[in-house]
Please model this.
Amino acid sequence: MTHIGVKPGDTIGILGSGQLGRMLASAAARLGLRSHVYAPESGPAFDVATRHTIAGYEDDEALGHFAEQVAVITYEFENVPAHTAEFLVARRQVHPNPAALATSQDRLVEKQFLNGLGIPTAPFAQVDDAGGLARAVGQLGRPSILKTRRFGYDGKGQAMVREGSDLAVVFRSLGGQQAILEGVVDFAREISVVAARGFDGSFAAWDVCENTHEHHILAVTRAPAAIAPEIARQAVEMTAKIAEALDYVGVIAVEMFQVVKKRPGGELVESLIVNEIAPRVHNSGHWTLDGSVTSQFEQHVRAVCGWPLGSTRLHGPVEMRNLIGHDVDMWRELMTEQGVCLHLYGKQEARPGRKMGHFTRLLPSG
Model:
């Protein structure tokens, strides 16, 4: 594939108007690029983009006009409809490619892809109806987690299957959609690798980071993770293998569980299980805005434009905390704290569970 040269002054197209699109557009501007955001509704990205289009993802006329005005197209979320990706890739280069998008959109396809690479995941079974759920529970046992194959995030689109759960009720609770049942993983910590693959196959990963969730939403990320160097190396190698297999261009995030088991002799054995692939910039990489030489947003812009990747060196230990709902009311207090970098997304209404912003702080070394 020959890359169409993108140069400063050109325009990158971004599908999606959320805070990730906002930060991508800001990073593009820093590199002398313009941005054109396309989305069905107004959002935080519109405030900083050079241009924007409000139109549906099935509107071929609007999509065609959008494609004519940009040099390359990327996206800020993975639920871009397949039709949209296919329509656009026939007119402009789209990175990451539609195949990577399709793989990550379906939890069953994603896990089959990972297992095909020899990368371990939680045990899983396909569930198409209530009877299929009963068979899957018989295979995986309880507790287990039923998840919709598509459109789940931040704890949405999933339900626990516990002892005594009525399986028909559990299946209906997810709207009767095609689903996947996953075995529960007893993990020591959740980590993620945020990395980038360039158009030329170059690969660069930031330090592995450690994530803490509250109410199924990411609350805190710290980097580097408190894991052994060998585990960190394995995590990065898994991510590189995934990116290469997808012929990926751009920033990718791979969420993993670190599992620690004790052998009969008392020896502790550590291993990694991949939980999810995010084919985009990711919440667990927001700390790179202030904690690294190159942010994940700048890196993504560099990659999709075919430019050299930047340094992923950390300035030092760093943490990122999300501002969820009315946490954002702390903004004035946070601005008085030395060493805190505050990022607000410009959303007008604070609602429970809604990501309103985040802040980072560098931590003492050692």
Summary: DSSP finds eleven helices and 17 strands in the chain.
